[in-house]
């Protein structure tokens, strides 16, 4: 893919990442459904562990609890890890609802 993705969100790797163990399905226009294992997520993107058949700049669509469908672009690939950036920043209140839904055990949730 020449030129890669034209991202509208600036690289904000300082965003707080939340560790997760989240199996997710990404939809790719050419490859169809791709199984992903998300190991951390933030308001600007997520990281996966495991081999993926994608290159830098390729995009997928994922469905997130409380957020809905959102596109994400491959920003980097290193070994069996890859970083994705969302097409837009997720609003903090929506993101916190999503994290809360992922961690139903009250002992795992942060104190408000």
Describe this entry's structure for a reader.
The protein is mainly beta. The chain is 10% helix and 44% strand. The protein has one domain (18-104): Thrombin, subunit H. Strands 1-2-3-6-5-4 form a 6-stranded antiparallel β-barrel. The radius of gyration is 14 Å and the shape is globular.
What is the topological layout?
Elements: E1 18-28, E2 32-41, E3 45-49, E4 59-64, E5 68-78, E6 81-86, H1 92-102
Antiparallel strand pairs: 1-2, 1-4, 2-3, 3-6, 4-5, 5-6
Catalogue the unreliable spans: 4-12
Query: What's the total helix number?
Result: 1
Overall morphology: globular
Structural class: mainly beta
The CATH superfamily is: predicted glycosyltransferase like domains
Helix share bin:
under 10%
Elements, N to C (H/E): EEEEEEH
Radius of gyration: 14 Å
Any idea what the CATH architecture is? Answer: Beta Barrel
Return the domain count: 1
Distance between the ends: 44 Å
For this entry, give a set of tags.
single chain; 112 residues; mainly beta; Thrombin, subunit H; 6-stranded antiparallel β-barrel; globular
Quick recap:
The chain is mainly beta. The protein contains one helix and six strands, in the order ββββββα. 10% of the residues lie in helices and 44% in strands.
């Amino acid at each position: 893919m020449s030129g890669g993705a034209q991202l509208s969100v600036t690289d904000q790797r300082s965003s707080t990442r939340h560790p997760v163990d989240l199996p997710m399905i990404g939809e790719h226009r050419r490859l169809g459904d791709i199984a992903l294992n998300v190991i951390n997520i933030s308001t600007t993107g997520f990281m996966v562990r495991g081999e993926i058949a994608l290159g830098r700049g390729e995009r997928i669509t994922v469905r997130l609890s409380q957020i809905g469908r959102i596109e994400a672009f491959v920003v980097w690939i290193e070994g069996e890890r890859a970083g994705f950036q969302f097409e837009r920043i997720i609003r903090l209140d929506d993101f916190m609802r999503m994290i809360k839904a992922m961690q139903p055990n009250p002992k795992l949730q942060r104190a408000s």
